[in-house]
């Protein structure tokens, strides 16, 4: 092991070779119900990195597995060998001039690709439900499809070119003539063998016919044998075999897709039918119509989401046999859309429905329908008993058999005691998912699962000749059943393909092909109870792209995985070991606690709540006493902090910002704000409004000497709009308690909030007048604490609702950068912030690669690497011409200024500038 790591270090820096127990456990978990802990994890950023890993693993005769985002559901992204993480260096994007194709690295997220293509009216074909998280490497390697792409627009069908690295280190680029010529010479035997396999397959009319038949519906069981009958050129055969190969044949280092049209006009209908059979009759009628997607949901699936906001009330009163279809139509224009709606409705005329079908063109309604549909799987997982696992299986049937097969599946689930199970799926493709919960901690329960899966496989294969895996990939889950579905002849063909590409079986062994009939029952992931806050987590990984510490230390999923293991050890009386030693830094210190994970989590788990709870448990009595004293004497604390800033600027004048930053361990920032000055109340006539200047704006003053204090600027804008701001009594001694809450001192934080509430209540005359605050994090905390007792708005919310109608604004040309901080995103008020900034500036840039800035109150001072990591993409997202930025949280603005090199200030400064009349002095 030491020799392996040492050899890796000859090429890789220390931070990209991960050998500690905590992170090996964390990265050894994907969205499936399997777990293997890798011996070492290596982050590759380019082809040279990957070639070194291949050479070292070849030398040490150890197997390896490639991992993209880890959203795989069948166990294809875990290993006990070397786990190779695809880094951000592979997140390349290059669109053709005509936008008809796009060249992508395996490390870019699918939704990011579509975001960049959107203005061109194009997108990639594959559309898995996990597209906001999964990466192109995983999409291609699993031939992932989804709700709309079917079999016509998946990776196999839209592949235009590929750059692939084989296990021997050879690099083939099918879009580069020199590379192709060299490969034809160096790997002539491989190409000859592939050509021979294709000829033999085509010569066997029964086998060729079988392959064509199997791929008329969705099928990801085994290798893409259709490549042998669809193509003659062995290079085309090779690249199409790579699609769906799950990292067992080679590494896709780049792929070129033919893009597809993204129709701008869409409409959706949620249609209820008296039973499954009737719903499936409608599916058969809709199949030839211009519909983009038809999703089937049985009654149990509907019941799992029936309390979601926005759904029609009738859903809760439906009978037990009812089923639904979620239908979507699309078009380039409204006339075409209406024609498609009419065609769909005409097709199901005469089919019995619970109520008259209706298509909505309202984007929010349609988005809600699809969000709810995507939430069916995790909704079941969230309702499961603690300690159990949620399983989603994925099969496909000929569409003519869909109704009977669905009823058979329902009966089989009930027969085996899976009464909570739901069935849903992509009905146009005959593709069904069924979700149920399983206890893998009890041997008897494992046997129940084994018996159930045996019968499912017989049902799918022997009765309906369907696909055991339609779109989730074979993985470890279905590997023992490949021969059952395909037969020995076709499976032997797959074995020959594997031997040709990977004769030593070093690439992801045990995945796709596995001779162990019980392989699917091994390495089952434990899901022990840990904390009620996170026990509902199904470890899907949807949270990860928004987390500021992801790939620095741990993601929310990985924090939960690690804490579950620590909880299991504690319950079993086992020592925490190195895992317990490392968790405080990786799990707690570097968690921003921003809660953005909850906005992506299908069941709204806020892992920051877990972090705050665990921080609170770790606090000593002394720390609690200090926290209590801080809240009760906050005026003194603020004065001390301002003095520290003044001393810091004196030191900086001598040694410089950079040196002081090093001496302070990163706590001192470039362009650190001046110390705040006392805020004075403006005595004017006007409509009363209570203004509480949050402590961040009181302690941290303006960015440069001579600038106005935030509190002064806000009052100036309020007065200009005809308001008379009121400051609460002794406001400088008050705090909302946010900084105490972030440290887990919940009781002390609430005591501070209670003192603030008394002052706000008095100043607003018991809620008679609106109350505003100028820091989004604090505003959201007080909104939650007050729970509607007092009307409180963040400044940008009040600006949108009350100031824009009263102010005369002169728009600037820009550009200006907008940072929508995590509190604004969570509160759902980001649209208002955008409108305020857009009312002031013509060109507004909101960097898509930046979510939470990672400053997190004082985290930016204590663990500055979190702030630096969270903002690592901001430099590429902002053009050189954009030298100013706005946000709505003072500490966020400090971190943004330091890391971006641009000056970030409160949106209040921008509003003040643009609302000046020509006669006003600057």
Features:
39 helices; single chain; Vanillyl-alcohol Oxidase, Chain A, domain 3; alpha/beta; 922 residues; Rossmann fold; 13% strand; five-stranded antiparallel sheet; six-stranded antiparallel sheet; globular
Determine the CATH topology of one domain.
Answer: Vanillyl-alcohol Oxidase, Chain A, domain 3
- Please state the second-level CATH architecture of one domain: 3-Layer(aba) Sandwich
Q: Give the overall shape, derived from the CA principal axes.
A: globular
CATH class of one domain: Alpha Beta
Describe this structure in words.
- It is a single chain.
- The chain is 43% helix and 13% strand.
- By secondary structure, the chain is α/β, with parallel strands linked by helices.
- It contains 39 helices and 25 strands.
- Among the domains are: 265-472, FAD-linked oxidase, cap domain/gating helix (Vanillyl-alcohol Oxidase, Chain A, domain 3); 655-803, no CATH class; 816-914, Rossmann fold.
């Amino acid at each position: 092991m030491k020799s392996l790591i040492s050899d890796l270090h000859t090429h890789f820096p220390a931070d990209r070779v991960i050998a500690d127990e905590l992170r090996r456990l964390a990265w050894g978990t994907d969205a499936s119900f399997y777990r293997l802990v890798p011996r070492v994890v290596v982050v590759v950023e380019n082809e040279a990195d990957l070639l070194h890993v291949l050479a070292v693993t070849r030398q040490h005769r150890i197997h390896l597995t490639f991992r993209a985002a880890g959203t795989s559901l069948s166990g294809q992204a875990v290993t006990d060998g070397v786990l190779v993480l695809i880094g951000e260096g592979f997140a390349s994007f290059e669109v053709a001039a005509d936008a008809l194709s796009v060249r992508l690295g395996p490390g870019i997220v699918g939704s990011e690709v579509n975001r960049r293509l959107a203005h061109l009216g194009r997108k990639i074909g594959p559309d898995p439900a996990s597209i906001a998280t999964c990466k192109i490497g995983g999409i291609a390697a699993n031939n992932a499809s989804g709700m709309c792409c079917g079999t016509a627009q998946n990776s196999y069908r839209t592949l235009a070119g590929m750059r692939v690295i084989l296990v021997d280190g050879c690099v083939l680029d099918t879009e580069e003539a020199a590379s192709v010529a060299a490969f034809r010479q160096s790997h002539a035997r491989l190409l000859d063998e592939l050509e021979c396999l294709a000829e033999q397959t085509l010569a066997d009319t029964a086998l060729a016919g079988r392959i064509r038949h199997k791929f008329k519906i969705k099928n990801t069981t085994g290798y893409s044998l259709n490549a042998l009958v669809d193509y003659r050129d062995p290079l085309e055969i090779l690249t199409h075999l790579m699609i769906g190969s799950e990292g067992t044949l080679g590494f896709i280092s780049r792929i070129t897709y033919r893009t597809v049209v993204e129709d701008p006009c869409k409409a959706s209908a949620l249609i209820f039918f008296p039973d499954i059979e009737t719903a499936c009759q409608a599916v058969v009628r809709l199949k030839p119509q211009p519909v983009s997607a038809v999703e089937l949901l049985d009654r149990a699936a509907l019941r799992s989401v029936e309390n979601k906001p926005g759904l029609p009330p009738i859903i809760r009163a439906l009978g037990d046999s009812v089923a639904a279809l979620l239908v979507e139509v699309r078009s380039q224009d409204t006339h075409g859309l209406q024609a498609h709606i009419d065609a769909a409705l005409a097709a199901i005329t005469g089919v019995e429905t619970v109520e008259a079908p209706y298509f909505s063109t309202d984007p929010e309604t349609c988005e809600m329908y699809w969000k709810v549909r995507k939430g069916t799987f995790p909704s079941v997982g969230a309702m499961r008993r603690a300690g159990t696992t949620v399983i989603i299986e994925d099969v496909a049937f000929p569409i003519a058999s869909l109704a009977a097969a669905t009823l058979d599946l329902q009966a089989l689930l009930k027969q085996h005691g899976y009464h909570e199970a739901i069935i849903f799926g992509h009905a146009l493709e005959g593709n069904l998912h069924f979700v149920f919960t399983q206890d893998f901690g009890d041997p008897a329960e494992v046997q129940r699962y084994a018996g159930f899966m045996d019968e499912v496989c017989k049902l799918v294969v022997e009765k309906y000749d369907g696909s055991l895996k339609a779109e989730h990939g074979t993985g470890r889950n279905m590997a023992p059943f490949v021969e059952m579905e395909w037969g020995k002849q076709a499976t032997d063909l797959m074995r020959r393909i594997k031997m040709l590409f990977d004769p030593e079986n070093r690439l992801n062994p045990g995945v796709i092909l596995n001779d162990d009939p019980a392989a699917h029952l091994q390495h089952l992931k434990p899901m022990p109870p840990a904390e009620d806050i996170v026990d509902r987590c199904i470890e899907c990984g949807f949270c990860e792209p928004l987390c500021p510490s992801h790939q620095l230390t741990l993601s929310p999923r990985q924090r939960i995985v690690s804490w579950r293991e620590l909880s299991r050890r504690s319950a079993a009386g086992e020592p925490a070991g190195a895992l317990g030693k490392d968790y405080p830094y990786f799990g707690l210190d570097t968690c921003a606690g921003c809660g953005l994970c909850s906005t992506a989590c299908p069941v709204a788990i806020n892992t920051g709540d877990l972090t705050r709870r665990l921080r609170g448990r770790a606090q000593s009595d002394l720390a609690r006493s200090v926290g209590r004293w801080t809240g009760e004497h906050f005026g003194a604390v603020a004065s001390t902090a301002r003095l520290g800033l003044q001393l810091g600027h004196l030191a900086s004048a001598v040694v410089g910002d950079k040196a002081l930053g090093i001496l302070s361990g990163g706590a001192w920032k470039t362009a650190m704000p001046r110390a705040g000055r006392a805020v004075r109340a403006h005595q004017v006539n006007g409509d009363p409004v209570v203004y509480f200047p949050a402590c961040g704006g009181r302690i941290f003053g303006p960015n440069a000497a001579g600038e106005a204090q935030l509190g002064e600027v806000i009052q100036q804008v309020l007065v200009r709009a005809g308001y008379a701001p009121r400051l609460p009594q002794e406001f400088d001694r008050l705090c909302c308690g946010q900084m105490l809450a972030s440290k887990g001192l919940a009781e002390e934080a609430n005591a501070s909030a209670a003192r603030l509430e008394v002052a706000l209540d008095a100043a607003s005359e018991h809620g008679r007048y609106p109350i505003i605050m100028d820091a989004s994090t604090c505003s959201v905390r007080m909104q939650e604490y007050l729970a509607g007792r007092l009307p409180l708005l963040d400044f940008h919310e009040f600006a949108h609702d009350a100031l824009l109608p009263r102010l005369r604004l002169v728009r600037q040309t820009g550009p200006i950068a907008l940072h929508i901080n995590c509190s604004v995103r969570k509160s759902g008020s980001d649209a208002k912030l955008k409108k305020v900034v857009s009312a002031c500036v013509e060109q507004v840039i909101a960097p898509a690669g930046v979510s939470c800035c990672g400053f997190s109150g004082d985290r930016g001072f204590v663990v500055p690497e979190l702030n630096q990591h969270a903002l690592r993409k901001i430099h590429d997202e902002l053009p050189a011409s954009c030298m100013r930025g706005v946000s709505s949280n003072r500490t966020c603005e400090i971190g943004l200024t330091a890391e971006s090199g641009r000056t970030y200030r409160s949106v209040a400064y921008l509003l003040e500038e643009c609302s000046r009349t020509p006669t006003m002095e600057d």
